[in-house]
Structure to design on (756 residues):
C-alpha cells in the first residue's frame, strides 16, 4: 500500500501535466505524477549527462530496481528528453511497462482532433494492459467531473494565496500542489474542502515582496521556502504542478469526452513546449497584475530546451512593462542553494512595484 | 557580410565547375546560387528546415527556400561564427542552446540573413529548431507555421500531416499571391522520386571496398543538398556524384581503407582535424544515417499524402528504434566494423540515446565512439583531445581486427 492508502498496483505514473489524468481515473486507476528523489547523476551511465535533471532522475528511479511501485507509467511526448526517456525506459527499465502519448505542439482544430484520436488509442492500450480497466464514455464523464471539482477547489486556493489578508502562504500552496500530484480526486476533494473551510484571516504584513514564481517543474520546496524565509511571499505558483496544472475546465457531459479532453489539454495555458511565446508572456503579465506581484522569479531545470530559448525575450518583455524578473536555473535537486539564496535575497530586497 | 561570402563562394565554385566539372563544385555553385536568390529584391523568401520539411511543396511555387540552420552551418565554417554567436549570447541566450541556433539568432541581429516572408518548420528533429523558428518569426514580425509530425505512423497521423501540408501550401499561395498548382507539385515529386532512385544507386556503390566516396563530404552532402530537394538540380547532382564514384571504382582510385565506420548525426562545420585523423589511419566513412533512403517513392498522383508519409517515416521522428532497426543489415552490407556518434552538446534528441546505440551495436560486434564535440562553436575544440579519443577508438578497431 502507498502512503495514501491505495494498493500500489492501482497507481499509474505520469511524467507530465499534459497527460490527461481523467483517462487513468476512468480506467479505475490512480494517476500519480512521478517526482523521484533519485539523484539525476545515477542515470549518467545510461543517458548523456547534459540532459534535463528531471528526465535523468526519472530514469535513475527506473534503474533503481524495486524502486518504483505502480502498474505502469505514461510518458508524454512533451519534449525531446521525454521522448528519448521512453526509448530508454523500454530498453533498460522493463519491469514497469511504459505507454507513450503523442502530444502536438499546437492547438488548432486539426491538432485537437488528432490528439483526441491519440487519446483513444492510449485508452485502448490501457484497457488491454490493465486487468479490469474499462474506459467508457460514462466513466470518462464521471472522471472529468471529479477532476474539474479538484480544479475549482484549487482555483479557490490560488485565489486565497493572492489575498494578503488570508493566512495561506506560498509554502502551504506548494505543499498542497505536491499532495495533489499523488492523490486521487476522491481523496483530494475532501482534503481541499476541509482546508478551505478553515482558512483564517491574518494581518497583512507590510513591506513583503509579492513574488510570482513560475517556470517548469519545481518538485522541491527550496525556492518557495527561501523566498518566504527571506521575507517575500509567493503569491502565485505558476508551474506544471501548480497553477497551470489546474487552470481551465474540461467540458462536462460532452458528446465526445475524448475530444473535450483533447481541447482542454491543448488549449489551456500552455507550458513552453507549445507554440505561442507572446501569448504566454501576456498571460503571465496578466497573472502578475492580478496577483499584484512585485516581481517574477522564473525557475528552470537546466537543459530544458523548450524553456531556455524563451528566457531572453521573456526577460526583456517584463523589463519593458516594469516588472522585475529573475531567472533561476536549477539542477532539479536544487543543489547549490546558497548561491540561489543570495540571488533571491537581492531580488526580494527590490523596491515594490508601483 | 554573409551575402558577400556567398557571392564569393558562388563565383569560385562556378569557376571550379567550369574547370573540373566536379560534383562538389556543382553542388557548391547551385547551393550558393539558391542562397543568393534569397537576397534578390522582390523575391519571396520562405524559411524552412530542409532536412525535415518536404521541400517539394516549395518547388511548386516561385519562392526561395532559406534554411536558417544550414545557412548558420555555413557561417560556422568561417571566422564569423564566434562573433555571430556572441551577438546572440550577449542578449542573454544560454550557451546550452544549440550553436546553430545561436548563430541563426545572432545573424538576425547582425542582419546577415535575408528577411523571410513566411517561416515553416517541423516538430522534429528537435525542440530547439521549432523554438528558434518561432523567435525568428517574432523578430521578423512574420508568420510561422509548424508542421506537427506525430511519432506513430497510422491512418490518423497520415491524415493529420496531409491536412497540415495542404494548409501550408494554401498559406504559401496566399503569401506569394500565386495559386497552389498541384500539377507543378506533381512535377516536383517526380523529380524527387528520380533523385531518390539515383540516391539508391549511390548507396549501392558505397558498399564497394574501398569506398569510392564518403567521409565529411558525404555527411555534409546528405544534409545540405536537401535544400535542393524537388528541384532538377538535385537529380543532376546525385547523378554526377554517382558517375564520379563509378569512375573511381573503375580506375581503382578509391583511397585504401583498413576500417569502415558508420556515422551517426552531424559533423563539425569549423576546421578540425577529425576526418584527417581518420584518413591518416585509413578509416573510411562509406555511410551515414542521414544519407539513408528511409521513405518510399512518393505517390505522384497523391503527392500530399506521399509527402506526409515521407515526413512520418523519417528516422528522427518517434521512437529511437528507427535509428537502430536496420543496423544488422547495414553492418553486413557495408562491411562496417565501427560506428561514430557525433554528439554536439545541445543536440539532445540525437545523443541522449547513445547508450541504446552502443548496446545494439555491441550485439553486432560493432564498437561505437560517442564523440562529444560542438557542431559550430569552435571555442571548446581541443585538437589533442579529439585526436586522443579518435586514435584510442581506432586502436580498438585494430585490436579487434587482429
Amino acid at each position: 500500500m502507498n502512503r495514501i492508502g491505495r494498493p500500489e498496483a492501482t497507481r499509474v505514473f505520469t511524467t507530465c501535466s499534459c497527460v490527461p489524468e481523467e483517462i487513468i481515473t476512468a480506467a479505475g486507476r490512480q494517476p500519480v505524477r512521478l517526482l523521484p528523489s533519485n539523484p539525476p547523476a545515477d542515470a549518467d551511465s545510461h543517458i548523456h549527462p547534459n540532459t534535463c535533471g528531471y528526465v535523468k532522475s526519472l530514469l535513475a528511479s527506473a534503474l533503481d530496481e524495486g524502486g518504483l511501485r505502480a502498474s505502469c507509467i505514461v510518458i508524454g511526448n512533451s519534449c525531446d528528453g521525454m521522448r528519448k526517456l521512453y526509448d530508454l525506459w523500454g530498453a533498460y527499465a522493463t519491469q514497469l511497462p511504459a505507454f507513450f502519448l503523442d502530444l502536438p505542439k499546437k492547438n488548432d482544430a486539426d491538432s485537437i482532433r488528432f490528439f483526441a484520436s491519440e487519446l483513444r488509442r492510449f485508452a485502448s492500450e490501457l484497457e488491454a494492459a490493465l486487468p479490469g480497466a474499462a474506459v467508457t464514455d460514462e466513466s470518462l464523464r464521471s472522471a472529468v467531473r471529479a477532476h474539474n471539482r479538484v480544479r475549482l477547489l484549487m482555483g479557490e486556493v490560488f485565489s486565497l494565496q493572492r489575498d494578503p489578508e488570508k493566512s495561506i502562504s506560498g509554502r502551504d500552496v506548494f505543499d498542497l500542489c505536491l499532495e495533489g500530484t499523488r492523490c486521487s480526486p476522491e481523496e483530494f476533494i475532501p482534503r481541499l474542502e476541509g482546508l478551505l473551510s478553515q482558512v483564517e484571516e491574518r494581518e497583512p504584513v507590510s513591506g513583503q515582496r509579492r513574488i510570482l514564481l513560475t517556470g517548469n517543474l519545481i518538485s522541491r520546496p527550496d525556492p518557495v521556502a527561501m523566498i518566504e524565509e527571506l521575507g517575500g511571499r509567493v503569491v502565485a505558483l505558476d508551474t506544471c504542478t501548480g497553477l497551470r496544472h489546474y487552470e481551465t475546465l474540461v467540458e462536462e457531459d460532452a458528446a465526445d469526452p475524448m475530444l473535450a479532453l483533447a481541447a482542454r489539454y491543448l488549449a489551456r495555458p500552455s507550458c513552453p513546449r507549445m507554440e505561442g511565446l507572446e501569448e504566454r508572456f501576456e498571460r503571465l503579465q496578466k497573472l502578475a497584475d492580478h496577483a499584484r506581484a512585485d516581481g517574477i522569479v522564473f525557475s528552470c531545470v537546466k537543459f530544458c530546451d523548450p524553456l531556455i530559448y524563451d528566457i531572453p525575450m521573456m526577460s526583456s518583455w517584463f523589463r519593458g512593462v516594469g516588472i522585475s524578473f529573475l531567472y533561476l536555473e536549477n539542477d532539479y535537486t536544487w543543489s547549490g542553494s546558497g548561491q540561489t539564496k543570495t540571488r533571491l535575497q537581492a531580488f526580494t530586497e527590490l523596491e515594490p512595484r508601483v | 557580410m554573409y551575402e558577400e561570402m556567398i557571392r564569393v563562394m558562388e563565383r569560385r565554385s562556378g569557376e571550379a565547375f567550369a574547370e573540373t566539372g566536379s560534383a562538389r563544385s556543382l553542388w557548391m555553385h547551385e547551393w550558393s546560387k539558391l542562397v543568393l536568390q534569397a537576397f534578390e529584391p522582390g523575391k519571396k523568401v520562405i524559411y524552412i528546415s530542409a532536412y525535415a520539411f518536404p521541400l517539394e511543396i516549395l518547388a511548386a511555387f516561385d519562392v526561395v527556400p532559406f534554411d536558417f540552420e544550414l545557412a548558420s552551418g555555413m557561417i560556422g565554417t568561417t571566422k564569423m561564427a564566434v562573433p555571430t554567436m556572441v551577438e546572440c549570447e550577449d542578449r542573454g541566450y544560454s550557451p546550452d542552446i544549440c550553436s546553430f541556433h545561436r548563430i541563426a539568432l545572432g545573424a538576425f541581429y547582425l542582419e546577415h540573413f535575408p528577411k523571410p516572408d513566411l517561416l515553416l518548420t517541423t516538430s522534429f528533429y528537435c525542440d530547439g529548431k521549432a523554438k528558434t523558428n518561432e523567435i525568428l518569426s517574432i523578430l521578423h514580425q512574420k508568420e510561422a507555421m509548424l508542421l506537427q509530425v506525430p511519432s506513430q505512423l497510422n491512418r490518423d497521423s497520415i491524415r493529420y500531416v496531409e491536412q497540415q501540408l495542404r494548409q501550408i501550401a494554401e498559406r504559401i499561395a496566399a503569401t506569394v499571391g500565386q495559386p497552389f498548382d498541384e500539377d507543378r507539385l506533381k512535377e516536383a515529386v517526380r523529380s524527387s522520386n528520380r533523385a531518390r532512385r539515383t540516391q539508391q544507386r549511390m548507396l549501392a556503390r558505397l558498399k564497394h571496398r574501398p569506398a569510392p566516396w564518403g567521409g565529411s563530404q558525404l555527411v555534409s552532402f546528405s544534409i545540405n543538398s536537401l535544400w535542393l530537394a524537388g528541384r532538377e538540380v538535385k537529380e543532376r547532382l546525385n547523378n554526377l556524384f554517382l558517375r564520379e564514384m563509378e569512375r573511381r571504382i573503375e580506375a581503382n582510385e578509391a583511397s585504401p581503407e583498413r576500417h569502415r565506420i558508420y556515422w551517426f548525426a552531424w559533423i563539425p562545420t569549423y576546421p578540425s582535424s577529425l576526418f584527417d585523423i581518420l584518413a591518416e589511419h585509413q578509416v573510411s566513412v562509406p555511410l551515414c544515417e542521414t544519407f539513408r533512403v528511409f521513405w518510399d517513392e512518393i505517390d505522384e498522383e497523391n503527392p500530399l499524402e506521399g509527402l506526409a508519409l515521407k515526413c512520418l517515416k523519417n528516422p528522427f521522428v518517434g521512437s529511437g528504434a528507427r535509428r537502430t532497426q536496420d543496423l544488422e543489415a547495414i553492418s553486413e552490407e557495408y562491411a562496417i566494423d565501427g560506428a561514430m556518434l557525433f554528439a554536439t552538446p545541445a543536440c539532445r534528441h540525437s545523443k541522449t540515446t547513445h547508450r541504446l546505440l552502443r548496446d545494439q551495436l555491441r550485439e553486432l560486434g560493432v564498437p561505437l565512439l560517442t564523440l562529444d564535440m560542438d557542431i559550430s562553436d569552435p571555442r571548446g575544440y581541443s585538437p589533442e583531445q579529439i585526436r586522443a579519443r579518435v586514435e584510442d577508438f581506432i586502436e580498438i578497431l585494430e585490436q579487434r581486427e587482429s
User: Anything to note?
Assistant: Chain A touches chain B through 45 residues (CB under 8 Å). The first helix of chain A runs from residue 21 to 26. DSSP finds 14 helices and eight strands in chain A. The first strand of chain A starts at residue 11 and ends at 14.
